[in-house]
Amino acid sequence: MLRCDDVSVEGHLREFAGRLHGPARLKSDLLTEARHGLLDAVEAYRAGGLPAAEAERRAVAEFGSPAQLLPAWQAELAVAALRGLSLRVLAFAATLAVAGDLTWRGSSWSSDGPHPPAGYLLLSRTVSGIWLGALAVAVVGLLLVTVTARSARPGPAVLARLVGTGLTGLLGLGVLAGAALFGWSIGLWDAALSWPPMIVGMVVVGAGYIWVGRAARGWLLAAR
């Protein structure tokens, strides 16, 4: 295949690359497919007798401008970003639901010690509710991703955007409420920072927040 280093083709692709946001693998696949299509067109025009510069110019013009192609490509990237975000939320929320209680075993109120204040218990239930809600919204997000991929109508895409926004909002609330709960727990439980399950829990949850937060940031960039 013709190797084309001239700016008209590669510059066109760089413009697409700079304006597309979303999962790196899918973005790379889209750009690779575009590059192959452009170079095939250039090769065909060269075989027809056109000079290299004119062949590239025609191939680029025939391919389409960013204004024509970017909306569809970016929509595809946004759907993929929502899929990734939903899967990460499912994994993280399920882990919290299954293993979260292990963090608090051994606390002063898990045995015969004084019970924590009512506000603490309310915050604990709120954190659980937020992540259960995020779990449910993530399931809806995955269903909508499937529907959006099979439908050309704008309705499912709009719903997917709303679900992504709601999921991102729940993540923000979950992080704030979870951090407040951990901080309050340390204040109520003197041995918290020396209790291995609590230490492991803080490390795992902190890493999970970063992991899920990166996916949320990626979706926001893809969907904006």
Give me the secondary-structure topology.
Layout: H1 7-19, H2 24-47, H3 52-63, H4 66-104, H5 118-150, H6 154-188, H7 196-223
For the biggest sheet, the summary is:
none
Cα shape: elongated
Overall radius of gyration:
25 Å
In percent, how much strand structure appears in the residues?
Answer: under 5%
State the order of secondary-structure elements, H for helix, E for strand: HHHHHHH
Alpha carbon gap, first and last residue: 37 Å
CATH fold category name of the largest domain: Four Helix Bundle (Hemerythrin (Met), subunit A)
Q: Look at the structure and give the CATH class of the largest domain.
A: Mainly Alpha
> Based on the structure given, which CATH architecture of the largest domain is correct?
Up-down Bundle
* Overall pLDDT confidence: 85
Count of separate structural domains: 2
Share of helix among residues?
over 70%
Structure overview:
- The structure is a single chain.
- Helix content is 82%, strand content 0%.
- It starts with 6 loop residues before the first helix and ends with a helix.
- With 224 residues, the protein is mainly α.
- The protein folds into 2 domains: 7-64, no CATH class; 72-223, Up-down Bundle (Four Helix Bundle (Hemerythrin (Met), subunit A)), CATH 1.20.120.
- Helix 5 (118-150) packs antiparallel against helix 6.
- Residues 1-6 have low confidence and may be disordered.
